[in-house]
Write a structure and sequence with these properties.
Layout (H helix, E strand, L loop, with lengths): L17 H20 L2 E3 L10 E5 L6 H6 L9 E4 L5 H9 L2 E4 L6 H12 L3 E4 L17 H9 L3 E7 L1 H4 L14 E4 L5 H6 L1 H22 L7
Parallel strand pairs: 1-7, 2-5, 2-6, 3-4
Antiparallel strand pairs: 6-7
């Protein structure tokens, strides 16, 4: 079954119908994002087509994970999700969509093992280095958890800038607005060696690149919330 998980690593097992579920949901989400939010996907080819890689993105809204997922047509994305969501039919669905449960508020070694297992099998793993959604739309300082994963997995990190979701569905708002503009821009990969040499400096570079790409999106008006 696609929703089955290894009891130790919590890594979702991809059953025979998993690609059908993933790409079916991908198509539906892409249609909604295009019609309601005029989604723009910029330079998605910068995500390597194969091999383990971390997608590091700024975090503005609950819309961010699906928007990043549908930004790429050439491979699936693996996500982290709050463990309380893995209940009933919805829990089975998000497991089939490559979601790994994570407990908040404390170190979660099981989630770390699952992330490493996902990268070991060659996944593209989405992480939000800020750790939580932005309360004001700005990029918050990055935490060191990403560097720990990179140190163990020795995989490249791809910067991803998201803009627009904060205006559509900010933190504290119960439901999203039905119209808006959003964009996802993919940057050039950073090598694992950059993080191994100086993790703090690499995180600073990563943050600066994401902020620069996001500023470019806003300056170009690609994702401004003008409806």
């Amino acid at each position: 079954m696609a929703e089955a998980r290894d009891t130790e690593t919590r890594l979702p097992v991809r059953g025979p119908f998993q690609p059908l579920i993933y790409w079916g949901c991908w198509s539906a989400a892409a249609l909604v994002a295009t019609l309601l939010y005029r989604l723009r996907r910029i330079d998605p080819h910068r995500l390597p087509a194969t091999g383990p890689v971390i997608l590091a993105a700024n975090h503005l809204s609950l819309l961010d994970p699906p928007l990043v997922g549908i930004a790429y047509t050439h491979r699936q994305v693996t996500f982290l999700a709050r463990d309380t969501l893995f209940r009933g039919l919805f829990g089975r669905l998000i497991s089939a969509l490559n979601s790994i449960p994570i407990r908040r508020g404390a170190g979660d070694t099981g989630a770390i093992k699952a992330c490493l297992a996902a990268l070991e099998r060659g996944d593209a793993l989405l992480m939000f280095p800020e750790g939580t959604r932005s309360p004001d739309g700005r990029v918050a300082p990055f935490q060191r958890g990403l560097s720990i994963i990179v140190k163990k997995a020795r995989c490249p990190v791809v910067p991803v800038a998201i803009d627009g979701p904060f205006e559509v569905w900010p933190r504290g708002r119960k439901l999203p607005r039905l119209l808006g503009r959003v964009a996802v821009r993919t940057g050039e990969p950073m090598s694992a060696e950059e993080f191994l040499a100086d993790p703090d400096a690499a995180l600073a570079v990563l943050s600066a690149r994401i902020e620069a790409m996001r500023s470019g999106l806003r300056a170009a008006g690609t994702s401004a919330n003008r409806v």
